Amino acid sequence: MEFDWNNPPFDLDSSLSQREVEESFEDPFAIKILPDSPRFNVQARYFNLGMSASGLGIFSVYRTNGKLVRVISARLFEPEERFFYQRKMDQTLS
Fold it and tell me: What global pTM score does this model have?
């Protein structure tokens, strides 16, 4: 998976690096979601909930053409997202 980091439309805060965001997409338990909202109808955007190799939970909004991923926004998990990710991982493993 290739990432387009040219002129990202957001600033990574000091708690995240580009590599950590990329690692969250490589997480075998990552959850990729197509939002069901008219707000995202104009241009397909997806959500990714995944963990970096260091154990950081990262929520990302991105676009893709199937080959290239353009991250629009990325931040650390909120408590609800961590719960959702953990629940989905537990369901997968059982």
Answer: 0.85
Sequence-distant (≥ 6) Cβ neighbours of residue 24 within 8 angstroms: 30, 48, 49, 50, 51, 52, 56, 57, 58, 60, 74
Classify residue 76 as left (phi > 0), alpha (psi -120 to 50) or beta. beta
Report d(CA 71, CA 38) in Å as an integer: 20
> Strand 68-76's sheet: what is its strand order?
2-3, 68-76, 57-64, 46-51, 31-33
* pLDDT tens for each residue of 10-48: 776 667 899 999 999 999 999 998 876 666 556 678 999
The Cα 56–Cα 77 span in angstroms is 8
SS3 13: coil
